[in-house]
Write a structure and sequence with these properties.
11 helices
């Protein structure tokens, strides 16, 4: 019989603390201009912050499940924020980071394994699924706050660009993961309210939901409509397109080894 999570089950993992420390040091290097290679510092800062947000996304699912009745999440290591403890470390961490590197988009990862049979009440099931995307929303608010509060005076341009790029990752992750597509959290929110017959019919295709989203975004017409909406939302939050573009340009520091990076994004 599974008991409540022990203190050890909830202790923050050294792996997560290490990632957070690298993120903090890289952020300091971007802010102060300490690093000669600003792009590499931006890469470490944004990637580290993105992984931290992914860990907190999964932690939000697990913590909400714990308080909803699934006491097994502690023994699985989900409350330690250790990305290596997730059921799908490849889907939860590696693939989302690769998507950022390849296309500058925050695609959601795989979720932690929740023993749904231990949880009673449709609202609880919906809240568990919603907890992850709400974490990305919280990150997006933090990243965009300096822009919509007009509080950028004294903030170095490189740090502004890094925040702008990180903001688009969080916004796209929140929106994509909230889509009511099987396998994504958006579907998890509505699933408890569907009939048993529909849930059984959808269950076999759930593992392919993330692949379907990725495939749809490769369709030019869909890609244009989606990113036009994202850009409009970010403009409304005060994040200009050139800031997001320069953030991505700096992030891809390796381009400077082969091609000249956009001089309009120079921060030195």
């Amino acid at each position: 019989m599974t008991t409540a999570a022990t203190r050890g089950d909830r202790r923050i993992s050294p792996v997560f603390l290490g990632i957070a420390a690298v993120t903090a040091v890289a952020g300091w290097a971007v802010w102060t201009g300490f690093a000669d290679a600003t792009g590499f510092a931006v890469f470490l800062f944004v990637t580290g912050a993105w992984i931290v947000s992914l860990c907190l996304h999964e932690y939000a699912h697990a913590r909400t499940a714990l308080h909803s009745g699934d006491l097994s999440v502690g023994a699985k290591g989900y409350l330690t924020l250790n990305p290596l403890k997730y059921t799908h470390a490849l889907l939860s961490i590696v693939l989302p980071v690769l998507f950022v590197i390849m296309g500058g988009i925050g695609l959601p990862g795989g979720a932690v394994y929740i023993e749904r049979g231990r949880i009673h009440g449709r609202w609880k099931h919906s809240l568990i699924s919603a907890a992850g995307p709400l974490t990305n929303v919280a990150f997006a608010i933090v990243c965009t706050a300096p822009f919509w509060l007009d509080a950028l005076d004294g903030v170095p341009r490189a740090f502004q660009y890094a925040l702008a790029f990180l903001a688009i990752l969080q916004v796209t992750a929140a929106i994509l993961n909230s889509l009511p597509i099987p396998g994504l959290d958006g579907y998890g929110v509505i699933e408890p309210w569907l009939s048993y017959r529909i849930r059984r019919q959808v269950e076999p295709i759930a593992p392919f939901g993330l692949i379907a989203v990725f495939a749809l975004l490769w369709i030019p017409e869909v890609n244009i409509v989606f990113f036009d909406a994202i850009h409009a939302l970010l403009r409304g939050l005060g994040v200009e397109e050139f800031q997001r573009y320069c953030g991505y340009d700096l992030y891809r520091f390796w381009r400077g080894l082969f091609d000249e990076q956009d001089p309009g994004c120079a921060v030195g």
